[in-house]
Amino acid sequence: MSGMTNEKAEMWFDPLCPWAWMTSRWLMEVERVRDVEVTWSVMSLSVLNEGRDLDEGYRGLMDGGWGPVRVVIAARERHGQGVVKKLYDALGERIHLGGADLRDEGQRTRLIADALADAGLEADLADAATSTEFDDALRASHERGISLVGDEVGTPVVAFGDVAFFGPVVSPAPKGEAAGRLWDGCLLVAGTPGFFEIKRTRDVGPIFD
Q1: Which uninterrupted H or E stretch holds 158?
Q2: Whole-prediction pTM
Q3: For labeling, which of 61, 108, 118, 164 is most exposed (least CB within 10 Å)?
Q4: How many Å apart are CA 62 and CA 68, to the nearest integer?
Q5: Environment class of residue 47 by beta-carbon count within 10 Å: exposed (0-12), middle (13-18) or buried (19+)?
Q6: Cα(31)–Cα(7) distance, rounded to whole angstroms?
Q7: Gap between the terminal Cα atoms of the chain
Q8: Residues of the chain with pLDDT under 50
């Protein structure tokens, strides 16, 4: 499989999810060691959890999660697909490496403003965080990803060609040829008719580096 060329993958992410962040770092390595092109797309845990009975802390996180995904969609609508990954990286670095808390309105506002600046995007895109203007486009992007795997899972969702899975969930993110071998394995299971799931209980959290 490592000899295949021009493979396509698509990853749906929510900037607030640390496991999606780990998977995205893995796919960045895959792009280095395999002839793979990744399309980066938005899904939303806030959309996924609408109407669900959540504890107060997680509900606060879901309420705060609307802002970043709305801003990414607004940036995509204005500038095209090419800005999505750049803005995701800028948001994720502040959330997962910088420890910004999306439940705190002040921190949320600052991280969005700083991420837009780092990505070279206009400051007024931050207005989308508290607007419903782009919610139809957000929901469409979310639905396109979740329809491939079902609503019993969350983020990340990765499509390997025409077949998508929740995951892989991995910590730390493999690098170099190890990343490539995991990609090869994902292609193998994606190409197996009727394959649905491999899973074990996580015994480590996201290991950022």
Answers
A1: strand 157-160
A2: 0.91
A3: 118
A4: 11
A5: buried
A6: 10
A7: 28
A8: 1-4
Q: Name the CA dihedral angle for 165, 35, 16, 158, rounded to a multiple of 10 degrees.
A: -10
Strand residues in 77-145 grouped as ranges (E): none
Other beta carbons within 10 Å of 3: 6
Cα separation, 192 vs 190, whole angstroms: 6
Structure token pair of residue 203: 């015994």
Contact by Cβ (8 Å): 209, 61? no
Q: Helix %, strand %, coil % for the chain, to 5?
A: 55, 10, 35
Query: Phi and psi for 36 in degrees, rounded to 5?
Result: -130, 140
d(CA 95, CA 18) in angstroms, rounded, equals 9
Q: 73-110, pLDDT tens digit by residue? A: 999 999 999 999 999 999 999 999 999 999 899 999 99
18 contacts: CB under 8 Å, gap ≥ 6: 96, 205, 206, 208
Bridge-partner residues for 163, per DSSP? Answer: 160
In order of 41, 67, 99, 130, the CA distances from 75 in angstroms are 12, 12, 23, 14
pLDDT score of 5? 55
Nearest Cα to Cα of residue 40 among 22, 28, 29: 28
